[in-house]
Design goal:
Number of domains: 1
CATH class: Alpha Beta
Largest sheet: 8 strands, mixed
Radius of gyration: 16 Å
Structural class: alpha+beta
Helix content: 25-40%
CATH superfamily: Gcn5-related N-acetyltransferase (GNAT)
Order of helices and strands: EEHHHEEEHEHEEH
Distance between the termini: 34 Å
Low-confidence stretches: none
Strand content: 25-35%
Strand order of the largest sheet: 1-2-3-4-5-6-8-7
Shape: globular
CATH architecture: 3-Layer(aba) Sandwich
């Protein structure tokens, strides 16, 4: 069964090859990829290849704007966090990217909150991580809006750009999430 999540303004669904033009439209923008650790896409074919490789992983969703049917970003699980991996405490890390034309509209928190619910209720995760590089304060703000709590910072290799950056790591437990969505926090 293919997982599709819905929010008031978004459909979060698996990527399709036919999304390549939409992905290229936002991923070629130099304001989007480098701040998240990847170079701007150089062609629609490169975006198609990313759909087949990176975006085909389980738990990765296209952010489709309901109003237009356009894919405006990606959100989903990118793998266990290196500071996680405690026996009996399943965890994962959320990553996301959004086209610059859609920044400042609350779409990332809307999508991330849906993925948090999916991770905690359907996947049985105990902790979910998220992070941002120094200077990506929009991402920091989105993570805080979603209830993530700062844990630590450290320099990390940004392999796709061939550099080292200070990275800030945040985490949310299932218990924190339950309290937040029930209105207790």
């Amino acid at each position: 069964m293919t997982t599709v999540l819905e929010t008031p303004r978004l459909i979060l669904r698996p990527f399709r090859e036919s999304d390549a033009a939409d992905v290229y439209a936002y991923a070629r923008d130099s304001r989007v990829g480098p701040i998240a650790g990847w170079p701007p896409h150089k062609s629609e074919e490169e975006s198609r290849e990313i759909i087949h490789t990176v975006f085909s992983a389980p738990g990765v969703f296209a952010m489709e704007l309901k109003e237009t049917g356009t894919v405006i970003g990606s959100v989903g699980f990118v793998g266990s966090h290196p500071a996680g991996n405690f026996p009996g405490c399943p965890d994962d890390e959320i990553g996301y990217a959004l086209g610059a034309a859609y920044w400042g509209r609350g779409l990332v928190p809307e999508a991330v909150n849906a993925v948090l619910e999916y991770g905690f209720t359907e996947l049985g995760l105990s902790r979910i991580w998220c992070g941002h590089y120094a200077g990506n304060w929009r991402s920091k703000r989105a993570q805080e809006k979603c209830g993530f709590r700062y844990q630590f910072a450290r320099p990390t290799e940004v392999d796709l750009l061939g550099e080292v950056r200070q990275t800030y790591f945040y985490m949310q437990t299932k218990e924190n999430w339950r309290e937040r969505v029930s209105g207790a926090l």
